[in-house]
Amino acid sequence: MINAADHLGLVHSIAQRYRWACCAALEYEDLAQLGTMGLLRAIKGFDPERGVTFSTYAAWWIRAFIGRGIADQRRLVRVPVNAQAGVPSEATVAVVDELSEGMTRGTAVLSTPPSGTLGVSLDAEKAYAAISDERTRKVVRMRMAGHELHEIGDEIGICRERVRQLERAGIKQARRRLRDPQRGWA
């Protein structure tokens, strides 16, 4: 039987490597706790008959748990791991990251969009409400839902470059207004 206490040094050495990736999202103790959960999962699923050393197998699970914990806490709008296939482009994630920077920390779940609308939490709705122009708001919503620049441009009747400009301006406006509500709404 494998004892978890014997392998806590491995957990701590891996958790220290991830300190830089978290910024303010997770404290070191949280990383160590996630790593310990990964270690326990490795103990549960380890099969010595496969010819892999336990430390190699455990390191994979420790990294997986820490990585998932960081992904869950890094952004304000959390994209569930099982729904990431529904988010088709890196641009969508970039938009979510940029909107998240101006908002207070909390958890909002971005689900797969049902029939053209984006299922998001109240925090994301605040971000959308901070964008004053209806057309710009629509562009940002559609980009977060995974639509391509040309699709949005065709629907609204503008070119791709203008869609990109509106998206950037909307995100900038939302960030400014959410950071300083007194001056941002003026």
How would you concisely characterize the structure shown here?
With 186 residues, this protein is mainly alpha-helical. It is built from ten helices and two strands.
SS summary, helix count: 10
- What is the string of SSEs from the N terminus onward? HHHHEHEHHHHH
Low-pLDDT windows of residues: 102-121
Cα separation of the termini: 66 Å
How many strands, which pairing sense, and closed or not: the largest β-sheet?
2 strands, parallel
User: How many domains?
Assistant: 2
Helix proportion range: 55-70%
Task: Name the structural class.
Answer: mainly alpha
The global form is: elongated
Count of individual beta strands: 2
The strand line-up of the biggest sheet is: 1-2
Rounded to an integer in angstroms, the radius of gyration calculated over CA atoms is 21 Å
Strand content: under 5%
- Provide the residue-averaged pLDDT: 75
Question: Any overview of this molecule?
Answer:
This protein is mainly alpha-helical. The protein has helices at 8-17, 19-22, 28-45, 54-74, 90-101, 122-129, 134-144, 149-156, 160-179, 181-184; strands at residues 77-78, 108-109. It folds into two domains: 4-74, Four Helix Bundle (Hemerythrin (Met), subunit A); 77-184, no CATH class. It is 62% helix and 2% strand. Strands 1-2 form a two-stranded parallel sheet. Helix 5 links the parallel strand 1 (77-78) and strand 2 (108-109). The longest helix has 21 residues, at 54-74. The radius of gyration is 21 Å and the shape is elongated. Mean pLDDT is 75; it is low at 102-121.
